[in-house]
Amino acid sequence: MNQPVKIAPSLLSADFSCLADEIGKVEKAGADMLHLDIMDGHFVPNLTFGPPVISAIRKVTKLPFDVHLMITNPEDLIDPFIKAGADLITVHVETAPHLNRLVQNIKEYGIRAGVSLNPSTPLVMIEELLADVDMILLMSVNPGFGGQQFIPGVIDKIARLKKMISKLNVDVDIEVDGGINPNTARQAIAAGANILVAGSAVYGSPDAKEAIRLLRGT
Ligand SMILES: O=C(CO)[C@H](O)[C@H](O)COP(=O)(O)O
Ligand SMILES: [Fe+2]
């Protein structure tokens, strides 16, 4: 049987002047986790926030924190992000030459570890890691900004990743991030994704609960 689809609203599209309210809104609306986009102005051409903000919002919600690190040298900052309250940390394959060590290091803290691929990065880059990671995050936009258009070729990439995971018979989540709306969500789920990140589709809607329901396709 297929696993239920989880929805992870991205705080990137929230109103930063009232984060506690914005988080409460999606928690009440049935979000499964909160996606936190960490950008450093080097790996991606944008800057967001870091561990102090995560520590502060950790106090206002019980939602698991899904931390998406879009930063160079992620190995230098694992410890502060975990101390701030991350429940899952995802690093980009493009930023980490010693990915196996980094994934082990994250898991030694007792939290889950994910690895992300940019749209143009081939799946072969994570083939040797599938038995060791908890989640693969496929970017369906070029990372750096919310509100971009879903790249259609990623649907086939999701299906190919799903096949690789089934063949190995391992328990690995497939998260898709970028340009998710009810239409792209339906295609991503059909291809094998089980976690969907949605920034604009949830925070841009006047009814977060209805937006999440539409993304789940229920
Ligand atoms: O990682 C990201 C961008 O790099 C964001 O999570 C993503 O873009 C979500 O925003 P939207 O749903 O509006 O596309
Ligand atoms: Fe993200």
From TrEMBL:
Keywords: Carbohydrate metabolism, Cobalt, Isomerase, Manganese, Metal-binding, Zinc. Its EC number is 5.1.3.1. PROSITE patterns: RIBUL_P_3_EPIMER_1, RIBUL_P_3_EPIMER_2. Its cofactor is Fe(2+); Co(2+); Zn(2+); Mn(2+). Pathway: Carbohydrate degradation. This is Ribulose-phosphate 3-epimerase. It comes from Methylomusa anaerophila. Binds 1 divalent metal cation per subunit. SUPFAM superfamilies: Ribulose-phoshate binding barrel (SSF51366). Catalyzes the reversible epimerization of D-ribulose 5-phosphate to D-xylulose 5-phosphate. It catalyses: D-ribulose 5-phosphate = D-xylulose 5-phosphate. The gene is rpe.
